Amino acid sequence: MQTVASQNGKVTFKFNPFLPEFHTDPYPIYTHLRTEDPIHMSSLGIWIISRYTDVVQALRDPRLSSAQSHISRYSRQQGTPSPVVSLSSQCLFFRDPPDHTRLRRLASKAFNARVMEEMRSRIVNFVNELLDRVEGAGTMDIIADFSRPLPVRTISELLGIPEADRSQLKQWSHWLAHIFDPMKSSNLGEEVNQAVLEFRDYLIDLIAERRQHPQKDLISALIQARDEQDKLTEDELLVTCMLLFASGEETTVNLIGNGMLSLLRHPHQLEKLKENPLLIQNAVEELLRYESPLQICGRTAIDSLEIGGKTIRKGLPVFLLLGSANRDPEQFPDPDRLDLTRPDNRHLAFGDGIHYCLGSGLARIQGQIAINSLIQRLPALQLQTDTPEWRENIFLRGLQALPVTFGKRR
């Protein structure tokens, strides 16, 4: 627990998400916050909101802006806005209405449920190909060998990225993910900005080619997406494609990695899913709740507001603890217990309100296929370590590696 002793001997709570213990196990800290100070002003000058009902209220309140919650270290480069800031300023994630409303409406015309479902059979093939490569080895790292390459392959296929370009795309997506990672040292700014520039230049050429020769892919669909006379600008097209990689990869990697760790630590629940593969949809929802890939949403108050009896003044930053809300006993009975049959699981793993994750359907499909395939094809899966290392990222919760054994196929 993060505490500090005052001069009179009284021990007070100090929330610091940058400490290693937070990344290892944030849940005791969340419990303390919800119980003792659910609307907490941290020593970092950030309001911390931890209860489910308060987080939902905040996610739906237009006075809490996404547009002003960017990571500042990329904000200047030789006196002009950096590529990352230029990217963020056009991004759906970091826009408020009416701009957000317009962008989401246009993107949804191309990135819809029908398109996601049409990817299902291809995702099954991708998963089987990845498992074919490791099945004879008897051991694997679920992150490096499986959960990280899967979304890169899926999103590449969805966008229509040529096979020959996908290895380079993997490198770009690695750097783009740092946009959401304030834990990295500031000297990573150059590498991230360079990746943004290179990926942007690549997409400019690919989009130009698709304008001339449309294909049955998402880039072509985004080009053609219209709402009456409105359509995505060139910059908005670029940003939509780039951020689809950065966010879509991280969400799926961590859904699969965190989900498999949770199952392997709860063998009775794992056996229940092995015996009943049709439970997978409900299981994935519970795994998303139990170890949410996205733990914290950042917002900025653009007007003063009251939440949970406290006033948040205009201009102050706010952290919404999705991971804590998803363990709130007022919403989820016995919240620290993994229960794959949990009913009415209205978790916040994909957010809520106008910024609810546009790609949640694709992440769910990949998670369902990947987890079911892993436990059915490799039924003897066992953890190689009881203490896998968590990545140092205050917003995203995911593993550095997840080594497992499963016995060689005879």
Q: Care to describe what's here?
A:
- This protein has 410 residues and is of the alpha+beta class.
- The strands form five sheets. The protein has a five-stranded mixed sheet, with helices on both faces. It has a three-stranded antiparallel sheet with strand order 6-14-13. Strands 1-2 form a two-stranded antiparallel ribbon.
- Helix 7 (120-134) packs parallel to helix 17, helix 9 crosses helix 10 and helix 10 packs across helix 13 (234-265).
- The protein has a single domain, classed as Orthogonal Bundle (Cytochrome p450).
- It has helices spanning 20-24, 27-36, 52-60, 83-90, 99-110, 113-118, 120-134, 142-147, 149-159, 166-176, 189-212, 218-224, 234-265, 267-275, 280-290, 322-325, 360-377; strands spanning 3-5, 11-13, 39-41, 47-49, 64-65, 139-141, 226-227, 230-231, 296-301, 305-307, 310-312, 317-321, 382-383, 403-405.
- Residues 70-78 have low confidence and may be disordered.
- The radius of gyration is 21 Å and the shape is globular.
- It comes from Scytonema hofmannii PCC 7110.
- Belongs to the cytochrome P450 family.
- GO terms for molecular function: heme binding; iron ion binding; monooxygenase activity; oxidoreductase activity, acting on paired donors, with incorporation or reduction of molecular oxygen.
